Structures are given as structure tokens and as C-alpha cells.
Task: structure prediction
Amino acid sequence: METIRLPSALLAALLFATPLASCKKHKPVPAAGQTGDKAAPTSFARNETLYVGGRQWGEPSTFNPLAGWQDWPVNSMNLIYETLLMYEPLKGELVPLLAESHTIKEDSVEVVLNAEAKWNDGKPVTGADVKYTFDLGKKYKTLLQSPVWSYLKDVTLPEEAEGKVPAGSYARRVLFTLDPEKKNALPVLDACVEIRIVPKHAIEPMLTAAKDNIDEFLKLKFDKNPLGSGPYSLVSYNSEKIVTARNDNYWGNKVFFGGKLAAPKYVAHPIYKSNDHFSVGLQQGNIDVSASFIPRIQEKKGVKAWYDKEPFFVSTSIPMLWPNVLHGHLADPHVRRAMAFAINYKDIRELAVSGYSDPLESGLVLPFGLEKKFFSAEDAKEFGASRFDVEAAKAELKAGGYTSVFKDGELVEMRDKSGKKLPTVYIKSPTGWTDWESIVRIAVKGMRAAGIDARERFVDASLFWTALQTGDFDLIMNTPTPPPSPSKPWSRFDLVVNTADWVPEGQKMYKNMGRFNNPKDPAYVARFDELMKQIPQIKDEAELIKAYRELNVLYMKHQPTIPLVYRADQFYEFTEKVWKGFPTSANPFLPPQMPGDRFGTRILWQITPAK
Amino acid sequence: MLRRHPTLKHVLGRAGWYFITFLVAVTINFFLPRLGDANPVDAIMARAGGNLDASSAREKEDAYLREFGLVETDDQGKVIRENGIPVKTPLVTQFVSYLGMSLTGDLGTSILQYPKPVGEIISNALPWTLTLQLPTIVLGWLIGNLLGALAAYKRGVFDRALYPLALLASAIPAFCVGILMVYVFGIKLEWFPAVGGYDPGQVPEVSWAFLSSAAYYYVLPFLSIFLIVVGGQAIGMRSMCIYELGTDYIKYAKLLGIRENKILLYTFRNAMLPQLTGLALALGAMVGGALITEMIFSYPGLGMAILTAIQGNDYPVITGCTLLVTVTVLLANFVVDILVGLLDPRIRVAQGGSK
Result:
């Protein structure tokens, strides 16, 4: 009898522990997410809160504005920190934000700051802040503002240099002098729409406290009342969501919106584990806008997209296969072009990506939207290989001297001119990325039917990144994604054919991972680099169109990569259960961007409560 | 001296073995994830290095590699490269520095969630995991055992109805139950929320609004594990009880005319032992997280943390979490070992060799 009591005592203890354990949950979580604001709200009324999704996937780790990758709402957002300019991707215009105007000259870009622009502590946003932000990138090579320095000579404040700063005021003109060799203003304009300006008076002392050691500084999380100039502030975060609250004194209210406040008092981002959760969240009305991938959106109750029919989204980038041209017969443009002819692009569009794409055209220029003027259907027809045509694929192989051996309709092997058997080439793609897996399977099916010995190889995602950068692949899936900025399509070509950083396989390349067009190779095609250097300097539109056409034809002839389909950089889905008035193709007053994201920030002033 | 204290000898002997097991487990936990070819910094560089030029990207990569102690550095702290490829620090050296850090309680910094310390990741996730699992396992165990014992004792219609139901509940995979519940009660009927741990409009705090919303959100995840635990426990307890009821000592007790309640207690005590072991082990393994349930309901527990870490080769997080699991599983085993010894003299005799 006595010993029987022991297990029951144990049970009783455990049962008592249960409510304690559930209470425990509530204590540590807010501690982790405290933002130091004593008046931080603990509940957010649904009709005052806009829930966005698909831009944050894991527990937040840093909100440091100088970190290479920050959590929502810092990275690529204009909620807490702001850029000088914004880019309107539908019209291709640069729109004022911190800078009220900009001038592009032969050898410089000048911006003038808005006199009203203020940090949220009331101090003005000055030329010194801008210069400080950019100069950080000159000093510390690992910051986001560092790459632009290969196109910049210096950043100066002409008013200070000329001694023309009015007493009691500050310099508002900032002059970006271009590198005299390259004279390429595009990356500088990109930086104006992508680099978030930080307050010198807040950042400099912190950096000094970290003994100017940037690695130490980057360990600061900036989660306690960070000082920005934007319309919202971080108020709370934990592993389930991040919440920002409106700054009613935001300087831009008066300048851009006639004194009107943004509609949602809070903008929050719940952290879910997968696309499915955001999809369920949208259907249940717990998420208002999302940038996540949702298959077959037309079947989802109450969920709307930019277009109300296919392709539903505005495509901005091109997922493609990257052949490693150092690998045997992949060096031969005939093989690469044959591969392009062999793929059934209609199947990819309809089966792999839910129809979220316009029909594919040859070349690296998008045949719709702003880039359409640089696209030539004639050229594509004459030189392009991105159309499903098995006979053309076979003709390319024949022209290269290749033979394919079939048995019972199945490909056995591929032989070169001398009759030597060629090795199977493998297409690498991360395992579990289901849309890419389907794309690769369709590509392999087409290639084998046309007589090209290719197979799929799905690898662990982390191995995938190593392989991509070091060139450890025959062919690999990847989407070059330049930010939405004025430099497209030049920046897309740059990611594909850039030869400036060419290194052999084994070392890392972040552009042109297929190692195309080695400058030291006898077969080097100098014209690619010449055109890439000239295009940013061309002012005349007819000239520019001519140059892009030549570049695109060159690309089609050499086929350094194999485009597969078009895709939106970010999807854009919304429901109107709680908020209404989101932009759509029928009412395109703003582009399909997430509220808070780049130019999409302005959606916050346009939406209204649904009830 | 130990000979005079058989129980103490038993405990110390067990403790010694557990310590050795612990050392082996820690070593395996450290080396296993690192044996592969992957470089965790590549994943960070893929998103942070894309727009950098080659030399800046290399500098950034070096900074990360240095920070995580993955590569050899020269006197000036520069990463040593051969043919442009960083020279990796031998795993054994990394292991020694890891042991040194672990002894001071420092689990290191996450690579994927840099600069967040591993300790913080674990302490954020652990309360969720405990809340999700502790009540489920304990209640499931209790109710399951009661039902099982009842079925064994009552037999008849009750047993015939319960047994197949319990078999069904324990045989359905956890993800099936979870997904079905989300679909039926979350999406179709909209009775319960399908995703998350509490109303998105709340911040965790001790308030009626928060607690009630947490309870409401708790229903589906709780049920999805609870039903399975109940089923499994009921089946186990039922067969144990039937077995005990058929043994000679029970028959003898019945022949002696001992009261039925008393006989039931005898049965219970003996049938409980394996079940108790099961409970302790389940509680120990609990900190590993209920991965499937966490995935389905987007519950932010340790299972998800471990999965994300493994997918991204986030070595410090993998090692930190497995260390936690190792320690708790071993502790639970140890406690069970000792407890069972105390509860069941036969085992103490067999293990301790005492007379």
C-alpha cells in the first residue's frame, strides 16, 4: 500500500506543475520581445491593425540598420528607416522620399534633401547624415552600402565646401561624384532607392563605443526604440510576431499626404512556418496582405491578387538554369541552345508555377512592362532558342557534331564528334523546393527526349548554396534577382554575364556562377563587357534600344543561361475582410508591393477600414 | 562501505554509466552534424553577399568564418586561404573549444540567426514546447491508463468498444490527426483557430484576454496529441492488466477470498511499472519538441528550432538543442532507473546484487 502512493504523489506533483509550466510560458516571451518602451501596448484591436505576411520566416534576430540582412520591418522596407528616393516599378519613375529632388549629370548624381525631413527625435535629416551613411560603406567593406563605392569617387556636401550653409541651418545638397572610369550612374540610383539613411548623431556614438569595430557593432540588435525617420516604430516582437506602431508626428504626413495619418495604427507581421499558414491566414482573415507563394489562388476563398486572372501577378524576374561552361560539352553553345529548345515551357508555366507567368520569350529582357521597349520579337524569332521545338534541338546537336543513342525510345547515351561517350550532366536544385523540383523534372524530360543526357539531382539547401557559389555543378537552378530599381534590365545582365570577378571553380562567385566568358580564355567575347560598360552611359533612347538589342542577341546566340519562366520577385495577395482599397491592375494607383515595402509604403495611407 | 549500502551502490553505479553515456552522446552530437560537406556560412552569404562585389563578399565571409571559429587564422587574425579556399579548423580543435565553452555554460551564437545566442533561442522555444506537451502527456497518460485498466477489468461491451477505438487512435499518424482537425474544425467549420498559439492581436502577458485566447488556440494542438497518447496508453495498460489478472498470484489471492479492491490494487501496482517507465521517458524526450504538431499549427517550439537548424547546418543550435535533449533524456532515464528500483524490489535485487 505504501509504495503505491509514490507514483500517485508523483502524478499529483506533475499535475501541479502543469499550470505552473503554462504560466511560465507567458513570462519569458515578453522579456525576449520587450522593446524598452514603457507604454508598449499589449493588445492590438483588429480594426486598427494591418497584418502582413510572407516577409519574415523565422524568429527575428536583428533590426540593426547596418546589418547585411535584417528582419522585417527593416530590410527593404521604409517603415522605420527611409531611403532617399523610391522607385515606382510600373511607371519606372523615381519618387521623392527623404530627398525632394535628384539630378543626374554626366559625372555625378545630386540629391536635395526635403527641408521637412526629420528623425523621430525632432532633429532634421541632414546632408551630413547621408554622407555619413554612405561613407560607412567606404570604410567597412562588408556593409550593404559598400558595393556602390566601386562606382563612386566620393560623396560631398557642396554647400559646406562652398561655405554657403545658412547660419543655424544645415547642408541639404548631397553630391555623389561618379567613378570617372565607369561613369555609371545606375548603381548610384539603385543605392538611392535601396540604402536606408541612418541618423549620424545616434549611430556614431554607438560605433565609437564599439571601438569602431564593425563586427562588434553589428551584434547590437537595435530592438529598443531604434531612432529612424519613418512612419512606424518597432513596439514589440517575439517568436510569433513583430509589431510596429504608427508615429503620429511622422514628417511625411504633412509633405506627402496633406497632414493625413496612415490608416492602420499598427502594422504587424505574424511569423508562421510555411506558405500554407499564410494561405490559411488570408482565407480566415487573420492576414490582410501577403507576399507568400499560394498555389491555385483562384480557388482560395476571398483571396485576391493584382490581376483577377492568369498570370495573377506582375512578373519581374526569370528563374533559369545555369550551365557551368567549364564542364565538358556544356562549353559548347550548341549544347546550351539545344537544351533551351528541348524544354516544354508551357508545361512549366501551367504545371509547375500555377500559371503565374506570361509565356516565355527568348533573351534576358522581359517582353512586357517597362522593359518591353528593349525587347524585339524579331530578334527573338531569328536568334532565340527559348521555345519548345524538339526538331530545332536535334538540329543544334547535329550542328555541334553530337549523336544520341536511343533504345526503345529511351535515351541511352550521347556521343561527341569523335564518337566518345559523354558523361551525364546533372541539374542541381534544392530538395523540397517543390516548384523548382517540378521545373527541373519537366526540363529533364524534354532534354532526354531531344537526346541530351541530363538528369535531376536534388540536394540539401545548404549544400545547394555552396555548390552555386563555388561552381560545383553541371547545371543549377537559380533566379537572378536585382532589386526593383531603375537599373533593370542592365542589372539582370550584370548578374548573368559579369566577368569582372571571374575566378576558377572552387572559389566563390556571386555573379555569373556558370563562369561564362573567362576574360583570359582565347574564346573570350569582348563585346559583352563593352556593351555592359557602354549601356549605362547612353542617354539617347533609340541608341539605348539598339544597344540592348545587340546585347540580347549576343545573349541568345551564346545562351550562357537557360531562362525557364517568369516570376514575381514578391507575390501580392490580399483580402478585404478588415481593410479595403488595395491597388489592383484595375485600379493601379500604386504598384503591387507589400504595404511598408519600398514604394508600397504609401498603400498605408490609401486603405480604409472595411466596416 | 558501499557493500553496506546497496541502494547507494546501485545509484552510484547507475550514475557512472549515465555519465559515460552522456560523454559519448555529446561527442556524437558534436561530430555528426559537422561531418558533412556543407558550410553554414554559404547560406548567410547567399542572401547577404549577393549584391556585394567579390572582395567585399570575401571579407564578409571571412568575418563570419572567424566569428564561428570554422577556419584557421594567421597571427593578424586573417583567414588563411589555400588557392583561394579557406583552410578549415580541424574538427578536433573545434570540439575542444566547444567543450571549453560548454563548461562555462556558453552554448555559442546561432549562425543562421546571427547574432542571437543559442541559449536565447532555446529559452524562447522551451516554454512553448513544455506547454504543448507536458499537460498532454500527463493527462493522456492518466486517462489512457485508467481507461485501459477499466477495459481489462470490466471486459464486455466497454472493452469491445474501447479497444478498437484506442487502437485506431494510436495507429493514426500524428500529422494526419492534426491536418484533419485543422481542415474540419479550423477551415471548414471555423470553430477553432487553425494557426498559431494565441490571438495575433495579443502580446503574451498574464491577463484574462491573453490566457483565454491562448486556451482557445490550444484546443486543436492539444487534442491532436492527446488522442494519440490516450490510445497508446490504454492499449498498453489493458494488456498489462489482463496479463496480471491471469497470473497465479492473483488466482491464489482470489482463492483466498481477498477483497476485490485489494486484488485490483495488486494488479495495478504491477501493471503500472512499465507504464511509469514509459511516462518518464516520454517526459524526458518531450524537450525534443512535437515537430509535426508544431509544423501543422505553426507553434514556435523546439522541434521547429531543431529542424530549421538542421536544414541550415546551424551547428551551434543543433549541438545546443541535442545537448538539452541528451541531458533531459538521460536524467529521466536515471530517475526512472532509481524509482523503479525503489518501487520494485525484484529489479533492485537484479541490478544491485543485494540480498
